[in-house]
Amino acid sequence: MFPIIFLMGFPLVAGLAIAAAPDAETRGRWVRLSVALIALVSVLLALSSMGEAPRFFALGEGTQHGFDLAITAASLALALVLLYFCRRIRPREWYIPVLILLQTGLMLAVEFAAEHPEVEHALYVDSFSALMALIIGGVGGLICIHAIRYMQDYQAHAEGISDRRPAFFFMLFLFLGAMFGIVFANHLLWLFFFWEVTTLCSFWLISYSGTEEAVRNGFRALGLNLVGGVAFAGALVWLTMGPGLHTWELDRLVDAGSTLALIPAVLIAVAGLAKSAQLPFSSWLLGAMVAPTPISALLHSSTMVKAGVFLLVKLAPVFHGTFAGFSLSLIGGVTFLVTSLIAVNQRNAKLVLAYSTIANLGLIVMCAGIGTTATLWAAILLILFHAVAKALLFLGVGTTEHLIGSRDIEDMEGLVYRHPTMAAMLLVGVLGMFLAPFGMLLSKYTCFQAFLTVDVMPGAGVLLAAILAFGSAPTLFFWSKWMGKLVAVPRSAPSPEPKIPRDEWIALVSLTVVTYVACALFPLADLAFVQPYTQALVDSGLIPASADRIPWETIVLMSVMLAGLFTLPLAFWLRRPQYAEVSGYLSGANVSGGASFRGAMGLERQVESRSYYLQSFIHEVPLMRYALIGSALLVILMLGAGL
Amino acid sequence: MSAYTWWLAIGFLVLGPLVGALLAGIDRILTARMQSRKGPPLLQPVYDVLKLLEKDTLVVTHLQSLYLWGFLFFMLISGFILFLGSDLLLSLFALTVSGIFLCLAAYSTNSPYSNIGSARELMLTMAYEPMLIMVALGFFLVSGSFRVSDIVQGSPWQVLQLGGILIGFLFVLTIKLRKSPFDLSASHHGHQELVKGITTDLSGTDLALVEIGHWYENVILLGWLYLFFAPWGLAVALPISIVLFFAEVLVDNTHARLTWSSALRVSWWVTVLFGVTNLLVLPLIGHSS
Amino acid sequence: MSFLKKSPWVLHYAATSCNGCDIELLACLTPLYDVERLGIVNTGNPKHADIFLVTGSVNEESRKVVENLYAQMPDPKVVVAIGACALSGGIFRDAYNVYGGIDQVLPVDVYVPGCAARPEAIIDGVVQALGILEERAKERKRQRRMVRA
């Protein structure tokens, strides 16, 4: 139990210490040290819980009572802090303080209810939460390291943005601590408290720069997450005072199954949807793009959105085989399809990443709503692979932006020749996101099979599989055309550009290696973390056992592909074909190589060609409007089916 | 997996190009005959590739050859999986990766024609990918498995159960074979607005690799088509699939090229109307699993 | 034997021609002459071509294009000049704005006369070019072997 307490508490202490550090140099050192400690402990925890059955921890009565009081007090303080921040709201954001008050009111009602359920086990760790801890500690930690140097450059470039870096790092670490809290808390009230801490942190970090746009987007994130928070508080009220299930413990809630636990589960699902930026709540995540890149990376890969899907996956056994669960899957499906299509429209690399994040989370939500062994397997692996590859891509785009001064995909043309290492890392990230033999694709593969065996209602499985098929196609398109820009040879000789700073380099290279290794060793991750979790659920009769595993020959073939991706460049590098170079074809009108041609009136013109963004084919605004209406209806349907 | 399928898979690797070249040769003769021409010798595609190997290779960037290796490697893997009787979906994924590597090779040269060609190729991939997935899903629903060895031993009625899927597959086969009206990524006849699209800036050995890759691809696609009729046995199924395969030549010669947006729209509608609908009504037709 | 002979791919460029020869050249591809029988394909792309077929008397503008196209053709390659203008400038020979003959700007291997050149003559010229192409291929192979050694 010690590592759990350490992981939940240490980030707070470290954050305070870092905030109090005398100068930037010391702060950087302490950040590195704390990250190393956190990562070490999470690795140790993961090693010790490999293949283990879930373990629950009961605190002594006095200790627990003390913690309860502390958390109640902290919740109230949190509400006050949020209300204090609300002094900067606009009239049309009136609903934010109302939601805060509503949520606090519901919480107080729960806390001071005439009789409330006793909590036996406040904390737990199972192989899934250990894996999450590994992601939070590892990926989140690397992002913190990347942030040291990134924020230095950021502040140097950003005129008129006050330097609040001490508080910034405090918030980062607080965020990590809260995430650890979410994955280890079995006590729902504690879980809810950590949940709200992440809301607060995300709000503060998004509006870090203090510009009008950043503050507005911060409030939007706050507002939408508070909607989820109110739903969560509603679930707690039901669990305390409602008829039927009477518990404050997550494991009991899950064990109760769909007949008893569906009502609180759908309410918590709304909170999960808001946190993981699913339609109709997705707009906050796009707004979060104004934040410095490490923040976007943190929100998108290892924390925040992952908290949402973590909880949904946890509750999956409750959703299994219910119509509410199917509606949840459909919400994920609509999100996946629509945001994949919209991502095709985007030129800004960060927006492409943002839409693809929402899409991939949609896929995880689809899996969670179905809640069979195979979909849970896919969902957990998706969480893992997505966290790693997306963190790599976000940090990569951030570093690239500092190197080339733009985050426009068109400006990344020829990066393979201008910054080979940087481009190679971005390419691994992109490949990791959608191509065989990398993990994301493996999960999609499992999903197809799993969806077809869904029998909630006739045609349900086919519908989900079709959504997956149609959503995957644009995914392929927008990633490939981005890769196309990266690999394009520059038409004129590139000018020398700055090198990648050391801290950023460490973070990026580690993530690249992890992306690769995670794919190579995924059977191990499967055996150590995913199977024990699903097996425990099967053993307790919550989800049906399923015989289908990925057959060994598929794994062998995947490994051959992965090995090929590694050996081909190596072979190429060793035995480079000796061919003569010639400029690209320009109908014979070339003037200086492939860079310019003789146009009308004998004028020399620069060659320009841009990618396709299909803006005449995919209309973002109306598509988004329909999707919002549709998904809102589905949320209502889900709530209706649950209640 | 039996010794037989191992031989089949190895046979694909060794003899695949020859069979593919023959298919391409027949294709060219048929096209010529439809245009009242005599046409080239049957082995013309082989001569073309052997000639390309004799020629010098000019590259815009050296890395383009690397991407082409990737293209060929994943094409081989895809076919190997198919003929080994292993997972159909995995074979499809490998085929997709291979296509993306070809696009990367064209993108890497960064000439406007190659760029447009590869962008259009990707768009076409986006157009046919859902339908190909529907094919795999359809086989899964009737035979209870993605494994080719199980599909081959499926019910003799599977082609009727999957009638809509077959129509959809034949439709996207036109795209996959780069036939008119969907030859918009690499036009057959170079003297057009797109020049040679995706292969414009490839020459010599590089171009030969692309041709060999396409031969393999033809065999793979014929294999997919064969799967629909496979339960009827080789003697019946192979002629039917070859006839259907060459029906594409007729389509090629009787249709004008579509724009990318109509190609995309039409193929997605076909996928929904024939593919998804077929899957939805499949329980009514009754499946054997 | 070289396979170049069995699969000559041609590139056709009209360097300021009146299009008479060009029409005749394209006639070779029609069912009546059907040069695809001989494996001849009109590629429209220098990087795929083995034989460069040029018509017209070449002026300053088209000279640059002809040179670029020639440079982008991979070795071994041959040039065939088609029609009176391409041979010597034809009736434009004395005009101030033309070079008068492809051989003023490129090394020409085969000359096909005629105004306009007849399809039979063009096919004959291409077949002659094949002989030269094969010679070049052998030479090229020898050069490569020497470079390797």
TrEMBL record, chain A:
TM segment ranges: 6-23, 30-49, 69-87, 94-113, 128-148, 168-185, 191-210, 222-241, 253-274, 281-299, 319-344, 351-371, 377-400, 421-442, 462-484, 505-530, 550-574, 623-642
The NADH:quinone oxidoreductase/Mrp antiporter transmembrane domain, residue ranges: 185-460
The keyword Transmembrane helix is assigned to this record: yes
Segments forming domain NADH-Ubiquinone oxidoreductase (complex I) chain 5 N-terminal: 118-154
A Pfam family per the record: Proton_antipo_N
Compartments (UniProt record): Endomembrane system; Membrane
Gene Ontology cellular component annotations, sorted alphabetically: endomembrane system; membrane
Protein name: Energy-conserving hydrogenase (Ferredoxin), subunit A
Protein species of origin: Imhoffiella purpurea
From TrEMBL, chain B:
Pfam families recorded: NADHdh (PF00146)
Record's subcellular location: Membrane
Keyword terms, alphabetized: Membrane, Transmembrane, Transmembrane helix
Cellular component terms per the entry's GO annotation: plasma membrane
Topology in membrane: Multi-pass membrane protein
InterPro entries in alphabetical order: ComplexI_Subunit1, NADH_UbQ_OxRdtase_su1/FPO
Primary localization class, coarse: membrane
Record bears the keyword Transmembrane: yes
Presence of the UniProt keyword Ribosomal protein in the record: no
Protein name: Energy-conserving hydrogenase (Ferredoxin), subunit B
UniProtKB/TrEMBL annotation, chain C:
Cofactor(s) required for function per UniProt: [4Fe-4S] cluster
Alphabetical keyword list: 4Fe-4S, Iron, Iron-sulfur, Metal-binding
Signal peptide: none
SUPFAM superfamilies listed in its UniProt record: HydA/Nqo6-like
PROSITE patterns: PROKAR_LIPOPROTEIN
Name of the featured protein: Energy-conserving hydrogenase (Ferredoxin), subunit C
Domain NADH:ubiquinone oxidoreductase-like 20kDa subunit: 18-128
Domain of life: Bacteria
Protein family according to the UniProt entry: Belongs to the complex I 20 kDa subunit family.
Molecular function GO terms recorded: 4 iron, 4 sulfur cluster binding; metal ion binding
